[in-house]
Amino acid sequence: MKDTDYAFCVARLRANERYMLTAKDMDALCECTDFGSALNYLNEKKWLTTQTQTGECIAYQNEKLWELLSECVPDKNELKVLCTVNDFFNIKVAVKCHFTCADASELYVYPTTLDTAALSRNVNLHEFHKIGGIMGECAEKSYKAACLTENGQNADIIIDAAAINTLREYALKNKASLMGQVCAFICDTANIKTAYRCAKAKKGKDFVSAAIGECCLLDRGSLIKASLSGTASLSEYLEKTDYSELSEVYLKSSAEYEKRCDDEIISLIRKAKFTAFGFDPVCAYYYGKLTEIKSVRIILTALKAGADKNTVRERVRALYV
Hints:
The protein is mainly α. It contains 16 helices and no strands. It has three domains: 1-44 and 279-321, no CATH class; 76-173; 175-273. The longest helix is centred in the C-terminal third of the chain and has 26 residues, at 280-305.
């Protein structure tokens, strides 16, 4: 498909950017005295309609976002990569709920390329081949790991590593694209987080090797070796990479690390602001909207919990518009 085939799609997304929340809107939300006044503000901005709970607000916006992209993106196969993280998370949900007898339908996240009802059924009946592809393979491996070790963490790392490897594969095939750059960044920063967690927990070689996925701008072998040697060695290795600053942030605060990673993605996607054709503007709009939704969720949750306004502002992400 030619980039010019995206002309109408990009024009429609540009038109919808006018309705995205701005930094001024986020400041106004942070100044709201309670949850109710924040909902009133969002109603005035036509950000929601009748939703009265944080989960409902977020679900409504996610649904609107996906509906828009599904309607205007000419090549629907391009959208699959945007669902990668959610798809593998849902595999994890299905496997965990099989063992805990919990209702997976209440825990699945969207958008996803998976038929979640069929996913639950396939995992419960051990019909992993029906899930198909790498997701079916990692679901089966995760299930077997949970059975053999009776340790949910061993099952989780199989799925998390498979998600990272899937994103890396896309990044390698699409190095020049914006989505490829975003995938590469997500891979490496997720591996850094995992490496630090393993180092702090003093995990063994087999666990660390299974938990850390393939890398893009990092050397996987060096990352594993450094993680096994402890946080000081890991920090020393990362100081020599493009992620030295993020490494320092993680050592200070994992919450701040998550925020900085989100902000870095926003910085990346802003390059597509003046791109008229192709999938790059779709990628930019998607992550821009996701960041907006995440910031609203943080503010609404904080207002319910009675958190300090300054603390809330520190957690609000940079915005695309």
